[in-house]
Amino acid sequence: MRPSRLDPLFASLPSLPGIGPKLERLFRRLLGREDGARVIDLLFHLPTGVVDRRARPKLAETVPDTVATVRVTVDRHRPPPPNRPRAPYQIHASDETGDLILTFFNARRDYLEKLLPVGETRYVSGIIALYDGMRQMVHPDRVVSEADLASLPLVEPVYPLTEGLGVNQVRKAVQAGLAKVPELPEWQDAAWLSAHKWPSFTAALDGLHHPGDPAELRPEGAAWSRLAYDELLAGQLALALVRAHMRRPAGQATAGDGRLRQAIVEALPYSLTASQARADAEIVADLGRPLRMLRLLQGDVGSGKTVVALLAAAAVIEAGRQAALMAPTEILARQHLKTIGPLADTAGLRVALLTGRERGRERADLLDRLAAGEIDLLIGTHALFQEEVAFRDLALAIVDEQHRFGVHQRLALAQKGAAVDVLVLTATPIPRTLVLAYFGDMDVSQLREKPAGRQPVDTRAVPLDRLAEVVEAVGRAVARGERAYWVCPLIEESETGDLAAAQDRFEALRARFGSDVDLVHGRLRGAEKDAAMARFAAGETRLLVATTVIEVGVDVPEATVMVIEHAERFGLAQLHQLRGRIGRGRARSTCLLLYRAPLGETAKARIAIMRETEDGFRIAEEDLRLRGEGDVLGVRQSGMPGFRVARIEVHGALLEPARKDAQLTLARDPSLTSERGEALRHLLYLFERDEAIRLLRAG
Ligand code: ADP
Ligand code: MG
């Protein structure tokens, strides 16, 4: 149970004064919590910068287009003339060095006469600009009298916003939220805190939302680092608790006789690469030990993880037990079935598919067979861990594309059997230093080489104004019988914008190339999406316009062209994933990164790296290095699960201490009952790693 003193932080936003249903809706959007935003979400919405009002020049010394606070005397009001009520209301003011016009649109006269009475002195703060050679300030941010000067905030935080929500509304809400922060016990080690000169959690939050100096907002500063360490420690504690829990029910040794695996390997049209064989051996060895397996199979796109997963499943099936393979999307689940199905048939494995779409009789029948042990390998989506899904004897849970699932989903699947072994497949070649952050102490197998026979992809960067040439080039490839993807980016500002962009591109290309062109996007229903993918895979359509739904996993070896429109909007990891869709067959492939000029520094660097290498591990390292300020989109799209406060590229060095801290703490106090343990429970709740606390209780 959550300590009740945290309740005000987990209350919904309308618990704050001044936030009604309308504002709440906007805040939900701003905070990315459509299902309900809480006070804590608001508090973790950290400023991205400040407005610095500390400059106090004389009017003659003001620098155009910068923020300044000036002391002026109000000379006269010039309301709009009666025949032009929409004209701005202007107020002339001055100091001993010059003049300033204060301009207001749609302002009420009585209000302005009170705010800026003629003959009085006022401090006004805002951006001063030159219009027609006149110094003007349009809608001053702040106007105060001499007496109120002390209350003028000289450094004000600036927040990411969303349409319809102004910065002052966010500031006010955050202030109201800060007032709700309760007294909290200190969960960090006192010596560690003082060695770093870090403030308390509350002081850190307060400091970030009230920066006295812009420097206090730096991610590497004391306040941000404190919160980042809190978050990393919460994550490491949760992972360590999960691991301890998973290890507790001693696993069951599952040793097959190798006959199914041999049949599969013999049926393969290729031989395993050395690293596939090694990964297979590592997994089979794990399965044969009476300990629970927690292994990560890391391999770049196209490195051939699926067959390794199938061999792992075969190993437990040989021993008369069952396996499950969970994919993040329906497309991928179906694709797994398609690749695995024929091989499984040859070896005599009974495979079935369960997604949200199997319903009624068919579904009931499938569940019966599963419970009776008549299905050996169940492939599916989230639907796999619904309550009614019961296995006769689940031995192995394989989770593909792990970063889309949370820890508790991984657990939910593992809980479908006693001491289920877990194999996690990830196509994001996460650098070693980060495996820890996301997966904790998992054993790792890596597939580092690409299957034989692959050709390097020719990657080129082309400015958008050469779109017509690109269309021609794609047309030639399609005319040669090749297949091409055309990816349109996600548009963050608008919910439907990405779809509209893809739709427009689709229509333009269809007008040019006719029925060879098809469209697939995230808002299609499952069956429609699958049908579109199937038509493309079968060659009925040859140019597939897509939003990023095709990002992961889809395998069409005949595809040789990948156009990525607005490549500058994608993160490196995502560009790499997308490019991985081509270069899978024997033909030479081309990736065209269409960008809008001029490119920013980061986007330029990303595109250069894409052209330079196809090594996913190298790309992941570079991605980490490049990710920084102003690249929110890249971060969000990189496929790394989100930390709310910690920035891995800044705070990565804190990971290892957090891991040690977590281990030491749990070694001394495995059920978190000491004074620090109790305090740490608060931390786990604050960062919502409390699913791990349930494990403590379950024992
Ligand atoms: P990913 O690791 O991205 O999931 P897949 O398992 O989908 O990769 O494999 C990509 C493609 O490579 C598939 O078409 C698969 O049949 C093929 N493949 C896998 N292993 C080998 C191999 N050792 N030699 C040649 N082709 C292989
Ligand atoms: Mg895959």
Amino- and carboxy-terminal Cα gap: 15 Å
CATH top level of the largest domain is Alpha Beta
Number of helices: 26
Q: How is the CATH topology of the largest domain named?
A: Rossmann fold
Which regions contain 5 or more consecutive residues with pLDDT less than 50?
628-641
Principal-axes shape call: globular
| Share of residues in helices | 40-55%
Task: Please state the second-level CATH architecture of the largest domain.
Answer: 3-Layer(aba) Sandwich
Sheet with most strands: 7 strands, parallel
Widest beta sheet: strand line-up: 11-12-10-13-14-9-15
Computed structural class: alpha/beta
The overall number of domains is 4
Unique ligands: adenosine-5'-diphosphate, magnesium ion
Strand content: 15-25%
Task: Please compute the radius of gyration using only Cα atoms.
Answer: 30 Å
What is the residue-averaged pLDDT? Answer: 86
What does this structure look like?
The protein has 26 helices and 21 strands. By secondary structure, the protein is of the alpha/beta class. It has four domains: 4-50 and 161-217, no CATH class; 54-152, Nucleic acid-binding proteins (OB fold (Dihydrolipoamide Acetyltransferase, E2P), Beta Barrel); 259-447, Rossmann fold; 457-613, Rossmann fold (3-Layer(aba) Sandwich), CATH 3.40.50. The protein has a seven-stranded parallel β-sheet, with helices on both faces. The chain has a six-stranded parallel β-sheet with strand order 16-21-20-17-19-18, with helices on both faces. The chain has a five-stranded mixed beta barrel with strand order 2-3-4-6-5. Strand 20 (559-565), helix 19 and strand 21 (589-595) form a beta-alpha-beta unit. Helix 10 runs parallel beside helix 11. The structure holds adenosine-5'-diphosphate and magnesium ion. Magnesium ion binds at residues 305-306, 400, 427, 553. Adenosine-5'-diphosphate (ADP) binds at residues 270, 272-273, 276, 299, 301-307, 427, 451-452, 555, 557, 584.
